[in-house]
Amino acid sequence: MDPQTGRLKECTAARSFAVELRHIDKRFGTVHANCDVSLRIAAGSITGIVGENGAGKSTLMSILYGFYEADSGEIMIDGKPVVIARPADAIVLGIGMVHQHFVLVDTFTVLENIMLGAEGGALLRHGAAAAREEVRRLEREYGLVVDPEALVAGLPVGALQRVEILKALYRRARILILDEPTGVLTPQETDQLFRILSALRSSGTTIILITHKLREIMAVTDEVYVMRAGAIVAHRRTAATDPAELGELMVGRKVRLTLDKGSGRFGAPALVAEGLTFRDQRGVTRVDNVSFCVRTGEIVAIAGVSGNGQSELLELLAGIRPPTAGHFIANGRMITPEAPSSPAEMRAIDVAHIPEDRQRSGLVTAFAANESAILGYQRDHGYSCWLLLIKQKLLRHCELLMERFDVRPRAPMLRSANFSGGNQQKLIVARELERESKVLLIGHPTRGVDIGAIEFIHRQLLQRRDAGSAILLVSVELEEVMALADRILVMCGGRIVGELSAEEADERRLGLLMANAQGGEVRAPAAVGAMP
Amino acid sequence: MRGARPILPRWVDIGLIPVANVVFALLVAGLIVLAIGENPLAAVRVMLVGALGDSEGIGYTLYYATNFIFTGLAVAVAFHAGLFNIGGEGQATLGGLGVGLALLAGDRHMPFAALLPLALLAGMGFGAAWAFVPAWLQAYRGSHIVITTIMFNFLAAALMVYLMVNVLIAPGSMSPESREFGAATLPQMHEVLAPLGVKLTATPLNLSVVLAAALCVFVWLLVWHTPFGFELRTTGHSATAAVYAGVRPRRIIMIAMCLSGAIAGCVGLNEIMGVHHRLLLNFTAGYGFTGIAVALMGRNHPVGIVLASLLFGILSQGGTELAFAMPAITRDMIVVIQGLVILFSGALPQLSRPGFEWLFAQLSRRAPALRSA
Predict the structure, then answer these.
(1) Closest CA to A466 of A455, A456, A458
(2) CATH topology for B39-325?
(3) Mean pLDDT of A1-5
(4) Residues of B in contact with A353 (CB under 8 A)
(5) Per-residue confidence (pLDDT) for residue A124, from 0 to 100
(6) pLDDT value at position B373?
(7) pTM for the full model?
(8) What DSSP character marks residue A411?
(9) What is the pLDDT of residues A182-237, one digit of tens each?
């Protein structure tokens, strides 16, 4: 016990606890997901739980919400021991959960989604009227602004999240669990979410915030628990700690939160796009007349709220989609609508691509790691002999990548799915950086990756830049964009709406540019808490 | 983490569970045999002796297994590309048609050495062509392969009836069969092995069994050890990953289905050139459908498919013997038993899994060493 915890005990002794977990233990086969976890969450507080991926935060919350049952341990709600065998039990006890990936029916309206599972009788009409009334009240009280009659399919992510919160509150949740709620939000939307959480707290709701973003913990929580390898390693009052300490506690060693990237030595343009346009099958313009240039030794980042054409732009450049109009030149090859390219050809002309979605594109989860480690390069002569792939070569290649990029566990025969997100990503980054390609296309290189791995991947990317690669980076994480980029382009509605140099960029300017054409979602960012 | 299952040792997963499923099926079949007043243990004895007791039984068992290997491999190749080819029956029918046409056209003019590759090419080619159309519809028009291949089974049967009744029927014949091929038939294994001093009873087992073995090795190499197989499996697991990896999924769909059809077409070689020596109706006898169960049971791996094919070969041959020895057990009963095996190991392969998971969780709690097995 460190003195900090001792002090906490004194000052929390008088308060009542909404949630208390005692000695929770949970194993999955050989994995010890939660070992002897005990924590107490004061009623009417915002408590953060931070930890790297795989530290056991989500498992713990799944136990609290009834997705899993703990192997041993006790759950107390409002001081009384309870059994939560399924989510329905949790809902009855007043626990609500907002998932990282929204669970909404696209073709239903907001109101229908909120009522789903709590329809209030055999006929929808009465329930709907009551629900509309209740939703209006919640809107007024907490600033949860959504049009109840709007179709979910057409709403921006920030609004979807508000629907999820409304759903939980409509079921009379007094304890709200939010699992990585800000992953998909703009800074402005994040600020708005935090204002809502503060309002909820003042009306007595208890909030548990699961995240790995330390800045958010600092901005909004009262207390914070740190988890590592399935166990609680620290409990702090937020006011008494700082991001550096939390980062160190999470990873178990000192972490450098800022990179010192130095200035790049820019060379000749290696990737040039002019008037690049892409319309999808339904005729919607996804990429609209985009022009830019990336020089060797330069990292150009494309910032923007996800879904504004960045994905399509990256796929255009990787040869996965043909352009509808305009052209781009990569390593001297001109790609036009008349002379489209293919992913295989782009690889052949030395353009490497780290895809946005590692689970669906970057690797094949059912393949062994050594097979995922050659995805895209399976025709490379280095791996085969007389038309046959040579297993030893694949294994040796994979071992080498794992060694150089610190992929854990070092098990080339293990199924790709059994690696943690960060290690999967390191394997993909290793595969794509190995060839020292002249042009690198990179999508969300650190999405869902823990702090230690982020630091590592960022350093590798900077190394490639300094070695003379031209790097185009697409990311929704502003911290990442500002940490890596020499130049930042902001994309919105398929168009490039602004360009900033690394020095000019700050979160506020970028956020405003990103939300620019979004309509109703723009709000001047209010300062929430202390931003480091 | 959600839905994480306890991990079973590999030998349980690929060894014990399939065996347990077959045992369950036989237990249920035993109850039925008991219900119609026969002794189930005696019935099992008759089946095993009939299928494996002498060189005649073994010959028949292997002959049946040959067909199951062809159709099982056909299903497996398509499966690894993410395609469920239900059309093995039709592709086998067309394969037989191809073999028959080649032999009817050439048996009077060409030497055997030229006829054999011609018949093989024709059989595989016709099978592949019959799979080509559903494959094209799937790849370029989005029609579901399951639906189209099922429909192509009916088309194949109807086409065959038309051709046999109206075109290929031997002049003066009352039944819809073509004339017999001259000397252009596949040598039977007892003939092949006789000069080597191995004496076997005469059975339908013929050289096709060698082709089946060769195809097992070929499929194993192709799917798991070539860049093409890598691309095939990538497409089967994730089309988006395949596109990212520079693979054209449409091309893979076309090649995988044609290959699948070609392998299924080899049934025609075994039946038409190896056994019947003439074109006739219904020579596929459901092999194409059973091949789906064989592939499922064999986990779409050649080794598993060979084992499953042997099991189904034993059931086919032993069942025939059983119908002889115990008149109360009719031919239909045999189909019921085969159906039970298909049900338990094909359709419900995970039925016993939770039980084993529970068992091993208990065991490993006591002896942690087991878990690392």
Answers:
(1) A458
(2) ABC transporter involved in vitamin B12 uptake, BtuC (1.10.3470)
(3) 45
(4) 244
(5) 76
(6) 38
(7) 0.79
(8) -
(9) 766 777 788 888 998 999 999 899 999 998 778 888 889 999 999 988 899 999 99
Please check whether residue A365 touches B, CB under 8 A: yes
CATH of the domain at A45: 3.40.50.300
Cα–Cα distance, B124 to B267 (Å, whole number): 9
CA atoms within 13 A on the CB side of B371: 15
Chain A touched by B143 (CB under 8 Å): no
DSSP B201: -
- For residue A395, tell me if it sits in a domain: no
Residue type, B166: N
Cβ within 8 Å of residue B179, ≥6 positions away: B104, B170, B171, B278
| Cβ count within 10 A of residue B27 | 12
Assign 3-state DSSP to chain A and report helix, strand, coil percentages, each to 5: 35, 25, 40
CB-nearest to B244 from A59, A62, A355 is A355
> How far apart, in Å, are the Cα atoms of A11 and each of A5, A21, A242, A333, B45?
10, 19, 20, 67, 79
Q: Which of A475, A462, A185 is nearest to A302 (CA)?
A: A475
Identify the residue with better confidence: A125 or A404.
A404
Coil, strand or helix: which one is A116? coil
- Note whether residue A242 is domain-resident: yes
- CA–CA gap between residue B19 and residue A105 (Å, rounded): 43
Query: Residue B2 is nearest to which of A62, A353, A388, comparing CB atoms?
Result: A62
Domain that residue A47 falls in: 3-94+174-251
Whether residues B245 and A376 touch (CB distance < 8 A) is answered with yes
